[in-house]
Design goal:
The protein is built from 15 helices and 13 strands. By secondary structure, the protein is an alpha/beta fold. The protein has 2 domains: 10-265, Carbamate kinase, CATH 3.40.1160.10; 278-375, Archaeosine Trna-guanine Transglycosylase, Chain: A, domain 4 (Roll). The protein has an 8-stranded mixed sheet with strand order 3-4-2-1-5-7-8-6, with helices on both faces. A 5-stranded mixed sheet has the order 10-9-11-12-13, with helices on both faces. The chain binds glutamic acid. Glutamic acid (GLU) is lined by residues 17, 55-59, 81, 139-140, 142, 153-154, 216-218.
Length: 380
Amino acid sequence: MSSSLANCRRVVVKIGSSLLVDGASGRLRVAWLGALAADIARCQERGQETVLVSSGAIALGRRALGLASGALRLEEKQAAAASGQIRLAHAYQDALGKFGIGAAQVLLTGDDTESRRRYLNAKSTLTTLLGLKAVPVINENDTVATEEIRYGDNDRLAARVAQMVSADCLVLLTDIDGLYDSDPSANSDAKLIPEVREITPAIESMAGTTRSVDMGTGGMVTKIAAAKIAMAAGCRMVLTDGRVEGPLARVEAGGRCTWFLPSANPRTARKNWIASGLKPSGTLVLDDGAVRALARGKSLLPAGISAIKGDFQRGDAVILQDGAGTEVGRGLSAYSAADARRILGHKSGEIEGLLGYRGRDEMVHRDDLVVTQALLPTGV
Ligand code: GLU
């Protein structure tokens, strides 16, 4: 299992506040961050794409603003985050910059990962950054996230990000080396569970007993919630102690950790979600050429669409039908029904002239598309 981190293509690493910020002084742990940057540089060098989800804004900002210790009100947390996030972003820029890696700050709220239109926007920004070899450094947009829309903990946010970018591995770096069958601080016989293949009620109850002293908001419960999201998206997750310098290298070397292993891979999980997890809100009718292109694994272009039924927004699921009314697939539309009606039958190069903005070339990108079994050549 130890080598599997090295084999992952796209890795999301979540960094808890207690790792980055010294609890007593409220200062950034610069040496630790430098070692993490070296860890990430090694991943980048061997062609792995890395996304960071980092907490620490509130912990850094509260000291900078002179807020008293103890629980903060929501507005105080937001003020602390506003101040701390600048410091956090600079710290990553400096640390990664030493290895010639560009950092890019992305602040998300729950809505950006739940509502499909915003989800597609966030997803394409992240994949563009990865294509440019930059490391996205993500945090919750705490300054605008009110109680109802906020995640509050970055464990679940990191899992949503992993799902969004179809990562094959999510690493949660925290202050405990894994999931235990009972609270290790209270029970010296507590055993670390090295591998979890399903989140059973027994696993959930273990989460309730394992304490994490993380300064952030999550405990073991949010880590298990993150594991559920990641595993459903076909993404493996590893929970480990990030306090050592170079924690990723430590996992690779077989250091203590808990692996959460899904049964499907991200691609299959996403295809299942598109094929059966969403309620379609419209239909695109395809000409014969487009149906043939789909069967060959191509994207659906506006030129291949002959009619549109229903009303949908960008990012909504749609049914793809052939001229005879048979369903040939499902996918996420890159355009709203109104815009799709204006560009149907046209070449992608004409989109900007017709809509006044340059959208995607594809109406449904091949990554957002599942074709029905009957359309596929046999044996696929
Ligand atoms: N977004 C918060 C911060 O940056 C942390 C949330 C958490 O504790 O996970 O301070």
